[in-house]
């Protein structure tokens, strides 16, 4: 009987120990949850955040290698050119404003007085032509042959023939014709021209040529695989990011400089009369 009681007491003690161990395990789980669910580890000074773990040189080079494997060496050049063609170029055209021109007075035989000649030609008013630019369009890189035919251009051909690898640029143009008093200042954008006498629209008027950066979204090589690149005379390891101007490869060198019209404060090295120096450029 006593043996059985001792066994029961021993079993009861084991159950209490298991409950305490389970409770201790639950407390550890609660501590982990409060500490971020495994977001750190416990050191001599207590819980340490994983962000405070020192980054080794091997870790740094692993990140750098992964970046260049995905982006390459000239991704910043390609992204900058693509942004210019897709957005910046249209923004520049939209912000350029309208162009207003008026015919110049012509010399008339028998009229020595400019006012008399002015009255004969225009009277009390003068014609004004206002030109507005709209949507811009960029075609594929092409070249015009001597016989006038237009053919597609490839970078390797531009190198061999000393040509510029470029694409024609077109723009929608609208022209309004007004008749205004002679004393009005047509160069002032605030001047009201009144109602237009006539309006003409021209779609996709040729504006000029834009050099195309190799391997950009607007280059003919952008969607080619290694086999096609070899057939076109291009190196499969060439990452692009440059232009072909008159047969020569040209690259834009990125430079960092302080932006204009901003105030910069620099701490002066002591001993000095001033503790801080303010500088601005315009």
UniProtKB/TrEMBL annotation:
Asked if the Swiss-Prot or TrEMBL record annotates the protein with the keyword Thylakoid, the reply is no
Keyword Transcription among record annotations: yes
Give coiled-coil spans as residue ranges.
none
Database matches in InterPro entries:
DNA-dir_RNA_pol_su2 (IPR015712), RNA_pol_bsu_protrusion (IPR007644)
RNA polymerase beta subunit protrusion domain segment(s): 72-258
Q: What is its EC number?
A: 2.7.7.6
- Per UniProt, what is one GO molecular function of this protein? DNA binding
The protein's enzyme class:
transferase
Write down a Pfam family by its short name.
Answer: RNA_pol_Rpb2_1
* GO process annotations (BP): DNA-templated transcription
Q: Which SUPFAM superfamilies match?
A: beta and beta-prime subunits of DNA dependent RNA-polymerase
Alphabetized, the UniProt keywords read: DNA-directed RNA polymerase, Nucleotidyltransferase, Transcription, Transferase
Taken from the UniProt entry, a GO cellular component term is: DNA-directed RNA polymerase complex
Q: Which domain of life is it from?
A: Eukaryota
Similarity-based family: Belongs to the RNA polymerase beta chain family.
Output this protein's name: DNA-directed RNA polymerase
What organism is recorded for this protein? Pseudo-nitzschia multistriata
């Amino acid at each position: 009987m006593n043996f059985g009681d001792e066994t029961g007491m021993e079993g009861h003690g084991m159950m209490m120990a298991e409950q305490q161990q389970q409770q201790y395990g639950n407390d550890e789980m609660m501590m982990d949850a409060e500490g971020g669910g495994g977001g750190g580890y416990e050191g001599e000074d207590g819980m340490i955040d994983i962000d405070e773990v020192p980054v080794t040189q091997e870790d740094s080079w692993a990140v750098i290698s992964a970046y260049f494997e995905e982006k390459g060496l000239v991704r910043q050049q390609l992204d900058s050119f693509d942004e210019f063609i897709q957005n910046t170029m249209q923004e520049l055209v939209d912000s350029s404003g309208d162009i207003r021109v008026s015919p110049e007075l012509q010399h008339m035989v028998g009229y020595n007085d400019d006012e008399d000649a002015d009255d004969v030609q225009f009277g009390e008013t003068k014609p004004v032509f206002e030109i507005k630019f709209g949507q811009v369009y960029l075609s594929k890189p092409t070249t015009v042959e001597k016989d006038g035919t237009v053919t597609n251009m490839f970078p390797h051909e531009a190198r061999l023939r000393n040509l510029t690898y470029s694409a024609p640029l077109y723009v929608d143009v609208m022209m309004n014709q007004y008749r205004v008093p002679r004393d009005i200042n047509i160069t002032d954008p605030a001047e009201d021209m009144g109602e237009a006498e006539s309006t003409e629209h021209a779609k996709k008027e040729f504006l000029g040529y834009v050099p195309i950066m190799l391997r950009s979204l607007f280059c003919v090589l952008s969607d080619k695989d290694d086999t096609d690149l070899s057939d076109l005379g291009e190196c499969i390891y060439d990452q692009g990011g440059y232009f072909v101007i008159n047969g020569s490869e040209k690259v834009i060198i990125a430079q960092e400089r302080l932006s204009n019209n901003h105030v910069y404060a620099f701490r002066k090295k002591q001993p000095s009369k001033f503790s801080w120096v303010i500088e601005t450029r315009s």
